[in-house]
Structure formats: structure tokens, C-alpha cells
């Protein structure tokens, strides 16, 4: 079966739902839209399907409305559902997932003047150019669809373990949790079990708190390359310090020196980070490829812990576990996984030394987060790259797009327009994985599609 659409949205995460909602709002009733994805939790993604109340958003509720031109929408939804939070509070991720679902459902209930939207539960397996001015996708269910406009909303895959568990007997491999968001593993953890977590970012904090909520009382060892953990938002956030990007140096070292100097002029360093947030994309675009690579090699871990902070009460809860010795940090590079006397053994090289140390645990949990926004996780993207329909970003940050999020592919001949939204555009925008940035990008992309007809 071959169907033609005005717009095809490829993906089933938050980016896809943000684009779809904007299409419903802006396209005429005569338009036809297809949304292609095989995730049963469409729009909620991994992060927003969690049911644990301790898993909070890392952005205040007042900045999380799905549609940027309706800034109070999420806070109003919370109040109407018996969650009377204020704009500065941090809602649960589960509630946000429900809000996203409800927002889409509300828009779809508009029968008059609404474009047609077909949700196709299938995986896009391949893409070809058609002479009819379209891009066509072969679907896993055997169908083919074609569109004059296509928006790629594919996220990133889970990062794999940094080493193969070859030395682990089959019976113990069930104690290696490669995807911690499948929370069923928590029910198998005994209260006194020792747990080793690989990675020390936001996912690590989520899993530590999930363990405690499920009755775990044992020790938790955290191994990461630098042993750094995310910092917390302030209970009373300081006013952001306005920062003029044009006055900042062109090198990472110079920028860091300047920002440190500004931090000494304010009572709370968060004022500098929050002042930089609206200008981050512009700052990234000023950097040369050499300086971007230097940032990724040397500054990224420190950027992450200061920029991507956790809710203040969540941070306080986690910090108590660190202070009482329940959670212990190790800085080093994992070398191998093995087993000894019925337990897992993680061998690692201690950072800045040649010393090899070991962590013995009953469970090993992969919290190294999401892989960098490349194309290797997606068979579709790899095939599109092979046919030069897309071009990978030189630093491995997704694919090349222009300032309007339109995909750059010089060898593509079809006049059909191809856009990308979300993590795939990190090479152009850098800060493009959080809701406040994606929702704006989605609106701008849809406006561009509508303006061309």
C-alpha cells in the first residue's frame, strides 16, 4: 500500500509529539499528516513513563508547557488534576508524560478545521527519493508512505556497557542491568545487596532513589570517569545574570575564565549559569570546530553537573546518602567485568594513576546515560547516510542541519523538504535535548513548513 502525505513525522518521543501538536494547530484542514513510530508509549518516551514520584523534572514547571505560546498550560494542567504546584516547583516526570498525552488528545478532539493525522505503528526501515517530489519510507509492516515534508524526530539510543561482560558466567549476567529504565529489576534486589552503578549523572540519581524507595538498604558504589555528580537547583533561585555572548572570548579556556570571574561577582553561581542558558545556542554557534571538540573533550562533564541540575529536595535526599556513606564515588575507567565467589567484580583504573582497583557487588547497573547523538543506533539513519540523504555531524552530534533545522544533504535531488528536531540537531544547536528548547524548535520548523505551503 502506498499513501501520500503533506508531512511525515518519523519518531515517537517528545520531539515527535511537539511537532505533531504544532502541525495540528497550524496546518489547514485539507492537509494530511502521518506519524510513524513503534513505541507503545508514544510521546512519553523513557523519561516520562516512570511512575516513581521521586523521579522529577529538572526544569521548573513554569517552563515546561508543550506549546511555547501557552506558557501557563502545564501549571494549569497540574492544578486541574489536583497537583497545585507553582511555576517554580518541580513536577514528577510521570505527571509530565500524562500532560503531554492529554495535550495531544485535546488537540485531536478538535474535529472542525483540523488536519488529518494518521498514527502508523511501524518502524521506518528505509527511505528513497521519488520523482513525484517526495521522500518515501519503507515501513516494517510492508507498507510505503511518501511525503512532501519530512521531520525526523529520532532521539538517541541507550549507551552500551563500556566493556563486554565476557568474564561473567551466564548465571550472573542477569545481575547486569543494561537498561535501568526497565524498572522490573528493582523487585529482584534484596535489601542488603551491594550495587555498583556505572555513570554518575542524572540517571544514577534516579536509580539510587528508586532503589531506596523499593526498600534497598545496602551500599551503592558509583563508578565514573571523573566521579562527578549533578548539583542541585537552589531552593530560592537567584535572578539570572544577563550575559552578552558577543563579549565572550572565542576559546573554551577564555570563556571559562570569564564565567568564573562573573561567578565571583554574584552570591550564587547559579545566576551565571541561568543567565547563560538563553544564549547557549548562540555561544555554541560562535565556536570553531576545534573549540567545540575541545569543549567535548575537557569541559563537558563540568558543564553537565552545573547546567543540568536536580530539584532541590531531590538533591538534599541524595546528598544525605552520600554524606552517611551509603553512596560512595569512585573516579576511574572500567577495564573489565568478571565474577568471583558468586559476585560481580568491576575492575577499573583509578583516575590519574596506573593503579587497578576493584568493586565487588551483587548488581551492576548501567547508568552511563544516552549515547552521544549519532546515527549508529538507528538502521534508518545509517541507510539514509549511506544513500547521502543525510550527512553525519563531524563531531558525532547527530546530522548536519542549517539554522532553520533543515537537513543539509548536497547530493539529495528531490525537492521534498527534510527537517530534524531534537537531539539529532545537537551539532548545530548543542542545547536541544530539553523541553524548553525542543518545543521552540518544533514550532519554528512547523512554521517553516506552513510558510512554503
Automatic annotation (TrEMBL):
<feature type="domain" description="FAD-dependent urate hydroxylase HpyO/Asp monooxygenase CreE-like FAD/NAD(P)-binding">
    <location>
        <begin position="9"/>
        <end position="156"/>
    </location>
</feature>
<dbReference type="InterPro" id="IPR038732">
    <property type="entry name" value="HpyO/CreE_NAD-binding"/>
</dbReference>
<dbReference type="InterPro" id="IPR036188">
    <property type="entry name" value="FAD/NAD-bd_sf"/>
</dbReference>
<protein>
    <recommendedName>
        <fullName>FAD-dependent urate hydroxylase HpyO/Asp monooxygenase CreE-like FAD/NAD(P)-binding domain-containing protein</fullName>
    </recommendedName>
</protein>
<dbReference type="InterPro" id="IPR052189">
    <property type="entry name" value="L-asp_N-monooxygenase_NS-form"/>
</dbReference>
<keyword id="KW-0614">Plasmid</keyword>
<dbReference type="Pfam" id="PF13454">
    <property type="entry name" value="NAD_binding_9"/>
</dbReference>
